[in-house]
Amino acid sequence: MTYQPEIRPLDGVDLNIVQLLRSDPRVSNKHIAKAIDVSETTVANRLRSMSKRNAMRVIAQRNIYHGKYNETALLYLSVSADQIDSIARHLSRLDGIINVSLTAGSPELVVNIRTWSKAHLHQLLNEEINHLAGLRSITTDFMLDVAKSAHGVGNLSTELPQTTSSKRNREIDDQIVAYLMTDGRTSNREIARRLDVSENNVRLRLQKMFENKELRLGVVCNPAAVGVSSTDWIRIKTVPAATETVVNWLVTNEACVFVAQTSGEYGILAIAHGDGSHNIAENHCREIANQDGVLEIQNHMLIQHFSHRYDLAYIDEDSEIAIRQNGNGKRKTEAKEA
Question: What band does 85 get if pLDDT is binned at 50, 70 and 90?
Answer without folding.
Answer: very high
